[in-house]
Amino acid sequence: MIATLKGFTQQLVPVNSIKINAVTGGSGSPILLLHGWPETWWEWHHVMPLLAEHFSVVAMDLRGAGFSDCPLDGYDKATMARDAHEVMVALGHERYAVCGHDIGGMVALRLAAIYREAVTHLAVLDVPLPGWTQWEAMTARIWHFSFHMNRDLPERLIHGREYDYVSAFMAERFYDHSAFNPEDVEIYAKAMALPGRTRASMEWYRTLTADHAAALEYKKQPLEIPVLGLGGEQRFGAHMVSMLKEFASNVTGGSIERCSHYVADERPHEVAAALIDFLKAN
């Protein structure tokens, strides 16, 4: 169950009244990686060694996932952003880049909006963002948003069927199934089966109405740092740049070909290369 990556070390970092599992390696300027649902830091395990040749890499389990604590509350993206920032400060990184995928992308954007003196670069991968003008219309068409927002129901239906749910969910969002190791699904499913983790990760969605209202306010002060938006051409790739331009003035990016939602799993070399070019060019 415990996934390890050669050249990287794991530790529990006390922050914001909880403990966050952080995985670190490499050297150079720091970059923080934030995973999405239903994954853990392991989402980045193909990307991390490539980035570590150039940067100090930190990947963490979000509050409520993997080996991080799963308290009863604090799943709004501002609190989760504070978790992430305090992890970086505790590890000695006062200024850093951040890259988030899916829910982690929502946290990354909030992190950049709150900690403007700390975040040097922002990358967001394949996710609709609270505050986007098309937020309500887009999320109304994504079935799992409304399902996960239901109180108690998802936990009851998923309990004991974590592997079935996670494997079916991810399979629906892959373009190239041959690019994904089925053993990774087992890692994510076992992590979700840990006590409290299914409920906690559902809370990521139950705060989205409040997250959207908050984003409508902070987007009034556009980010001036370099921003990269990437997505799978079969998922949100076509929207990422225009979406992020609502929040920032300096946005580049686009679509990754032959790819759907799980870009770091399907196309890790393309993701790593894009991040390296982005960070070194700006």
TrEMBL record:
Write out the entry's keywords from A to Z. Hydrolase
UniProt feature coiled coil, ranges: none
Report which superkingdom the organism of origin falls in: Bacteria
Residue span(s) of domain AB hydrolase-1 = 30-263
Looking up InterPro entries in the UniProt record yields:
AB_hydrolase_1, AB_hydrolase_fold, Epox_hydrolase-like
> Is-annotated flag, keyword Magnesium?
no
PANTHER family with a match to the protein in the record: EPOXIDE HYDROLASE
Q: What is this protein called?
A: Dehalogenase
Q: Which organism is it from?
A: Rhizobium dioscoreae
